[in-house]
Task: inverse folding
């Protein structure tokens, strides 16, 4: 097919007049019978690289694709360019008997030029037998990173593709992916048995995308406000859990944002309907798990928001890559809390040792990106083996747009290099940092690390600062990670020159853990101090009449928010943070009456854009907890039944209680504390505590009681007294 006029074919089939980037060279490679490996960023036109040669070739091209939704999207697109639907088909479990017969007929007649199959379908003996009767032009492996266990969407069935290809007779193979680190690239080529493939590697840089990481505080309000300010713009909000997808989509809907959920827990018909609504612009925002978006050809996505930091930088890159595929603006904002990463690390303990190591390394890279104080684009592209200078970022990330102070770290880098060399490169970043800070761990104890010369040489430096030094050392090629050894840190030839590096500086790090644990900053500075004073006085009167401490009526933060947003009815009041429906009904009447009167008397124009509506928390978990405590089940059994640890269960119970719902846990507390202890703690909370916080209780009673006991007493107090 080397004599084919590809420009003519491109115009005839797709109506385009010229190729993008490496498209023509890739098409010529696979068409000439060579194995071909394509790494091209989202929006670069990967699909055309196998669609056009398939349409022009004799026989049928077999396209292996991971998702039914992705296959449907591709088939619909190809049929849109053809007079006959049979030119492209899907062969998977979604077909009924009549559809399956039509696929068989079109395949055997030679009408079908592209057949899309999932790896599971390709590997079925019945399908191998069917396909062996056809003339196959070539195999295309789309989303090829799914082959590698180091990839972010690893699918075990992908690793069996090679056997199926051999069973069908050797044909050229083209593997395509938008995201693949050097390690994943080698794994793909080796697993597919690609012989001396031609490799086409395009730049991973997407200059039109703006990257930002925000601390995970008041996130629901932040997302609602952001999308409200850009109403009508196509957006995707990614969450890691299905429940969070449901919650956020409902929140957006009741705040007037045209949003729909998408996750694997929805039935197939609903998922297809929601995806089509998004593609057809009947819906502006999709709230989704990572099950959504792979290969979706929606060019005008303007916002990609991550409610949770993804499990790997490859996932992050691919998901953010769905923004601005038309070359227009694309804003990618990720909300980060180190606690989310710690939670994901705990989940890894259920996996095999090798999977745990891989998972931890991927999480470490994702955390490094989120906590980085340097150019985000530079960190991201370095992960994919691409050198990028931050001067070329053009202020298209938060760190370049709002640069932080830099500090010299040359001495620390030399000490990192010394520690790595002294331990012969056998440790990962965390352990190298522990050596420098003099923190003994079980692993370091086995190696007598406290006898090292580098032990404790930087006790005065924070973990985040030293992590930044290691990360910059890797980016600037003084250090390297040995991926085959699960990410141990090695020195490079450049790092071993012994010379003090010139101008090796790192930006001061944001300590997100400290930031998230600190006292919450008020969302809006413009608190109406006069109204705040009135509300505080009224709270005191209500508390006195109910014989409870003022903080048990409404917290200081809740009062500040009321004096900022001016809720004038109970519906608005229950949306104030820390209030909820029960508390609003019990204490809210006089408060909203005061606020409404104050607003009228002072002719105040309320900031309605800050009055967010919320949904009643009627989740299955809440109902289960309430019903289970009513049945007096042990809390450990309740937690275990829902796959929770005790701290997670208590956190959920606190949310229920502070929103105004009673939970009776007397049966549990009576088994662990005597009556005198309960009275002592209640007396303190009623008469002496100023905020009623766990920190306050721990400071006062931490030596006498376990933290969990104090948490339970606090739950009982708010349930019995405040509600």
Result:
């Amino acid at each position: 097919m080397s004599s084919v006029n590809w420009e003519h074919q491109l115009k005839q089939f797709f109506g385009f007049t010229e190729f993008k980037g490496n498209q023509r060279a890739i098409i010529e490679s696979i068409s000439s019978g060579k194995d071909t490996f394509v790494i091209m960023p989202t929006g670069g036109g990967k699909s055309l690289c196998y669609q056009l040669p398939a349409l022009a070739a004799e026989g049928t091209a077999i396209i292996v694709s991971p998702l039914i939704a992705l296959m449907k999207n591709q088939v619909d697109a190809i049929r849109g360019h053809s007079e006959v639907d049979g030119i492209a088909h899907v062969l998977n479990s979604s077909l009924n008997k009549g559809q399956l017969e039509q696929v068989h007929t079109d395949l055997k007649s030679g009408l079908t030029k592209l057949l899309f199959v999932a790896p599971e379908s390709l590997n079925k003996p019945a399908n191998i037998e069917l396909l062996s009767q056809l003339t196959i032009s070539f195999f295309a492996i789309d989303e090829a990173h799914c082959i590698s266990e180091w990839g972010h969407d690893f699918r075990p069935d992908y690793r069996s593709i090679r056997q199926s290809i051999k069973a069908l007779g050797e044909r050229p193979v083209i593997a395509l992916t938008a995201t693949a680190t050097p390690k994943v690239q080698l794994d793909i080529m080796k697993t597919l048995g690609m012989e001396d493939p031609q490799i086409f590697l395009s730049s991973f840089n997407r200059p039109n995308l703006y990257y930002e990481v925000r601390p995970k505080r008041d996130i629901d309000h932040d997302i609602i406000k952001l999308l409200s300010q850009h109403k009508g713009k196509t957006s995707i909000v990614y969450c890691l859990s299905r429940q969070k997808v449901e919650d956020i989509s409902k929140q957006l809907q009741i705040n007037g944002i045209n949003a729909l959920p998408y996750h694997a827990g929805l039935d197939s018909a609903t998922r297809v309907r929601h995806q089509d609504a998004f593609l057809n612009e009947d819906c502006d925002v999709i709230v989704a798990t990572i099950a959504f978006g792979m290969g979706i050809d929606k060019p005008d996505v303007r916002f990609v928001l991550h409610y949770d930091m993804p499990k790997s930088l490859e996932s992050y890159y691919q998901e953010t890559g769905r923004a601005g595929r038309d070359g227009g603006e694309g804003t990618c904002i990720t909300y980060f809390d180190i606690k989310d990463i710690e939670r994901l690390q705990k989940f890894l303990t259920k996996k095999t040792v090798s999977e745990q190591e891989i998972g931890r390394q991927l999480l470490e890279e994702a955390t490094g990106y989120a906590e980085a104080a340097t150019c985000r684009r530079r960190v991201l592209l370095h992960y994919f083996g691409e050198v990028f200078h931050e001067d070329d970022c053009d202020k298209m990330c938060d760190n370049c747009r709002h640069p932080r102070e830099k500090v010299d770290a040359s001495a620390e880098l030399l000490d990192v290099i010394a520690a790595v060399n002294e331990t012969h490169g056998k440790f990962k970043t965390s352990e190298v940092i522990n050596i420098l800070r003099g923190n003994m761990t079980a692993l370091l104890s086995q190696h007598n690390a406290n006898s090292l010369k580098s032990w404790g040489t930087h006790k005065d430096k924070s973990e985040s600062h030293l992590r930044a030094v290691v990360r910059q050392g890797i980016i600037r090629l003084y250090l390297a990670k040995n991926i085959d050894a699960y990410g141990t840190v090695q020195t490079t030839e450049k790092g071993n020159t012994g010379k003090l590096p010139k101008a090796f500086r790192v930006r001061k790090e944001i300590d997100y853990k400290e930031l998230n644990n600190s006292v919450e900053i008020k969302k809006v500075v413009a608190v109406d101090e006069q109204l705040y004073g009135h509300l505080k006085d009224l709270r005191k009167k209500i508390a006195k009449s109910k014989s409870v401490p003022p903080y048990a009526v409404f917290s200081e933060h809740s009062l500040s928010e009321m004096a900022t947003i001016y809720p004038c009815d109970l519906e608005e009041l229950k949306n104030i943070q820390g209030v909820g429906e029960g508390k609003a009904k019990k204490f809210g009447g006089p408060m909203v009456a005061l606020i409404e009167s104050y607003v009228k008397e002072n002719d105040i124009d309320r900031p309605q854009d800050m009055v967010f509506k919320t949904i009643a928390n009627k989740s299955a978990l809440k109902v289960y907890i309430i019903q289970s405590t009513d049945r007096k089940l042990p809390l450990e059994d309740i937690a275990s039944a829902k796959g929770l640890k005790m701290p997670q269960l208590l956190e959920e119970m606190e949310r229920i209680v502070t929103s105004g719902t009673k939970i009776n846990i007397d049966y549990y507390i009576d088994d662990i504390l005597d009556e005198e202890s309960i009275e002592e703690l209640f007396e303190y909370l009623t008469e002496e505590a100023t905020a009623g916080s766990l920190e306050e209780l721990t400071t006062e009673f931490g030596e006498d009681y376990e933290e969990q006991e104090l948490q339970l007493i606090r739950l009982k107090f708010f349930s019995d007294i405040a509600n």
Q: What stands out?
A: The two ends are 77 Å apart (CA to CA).
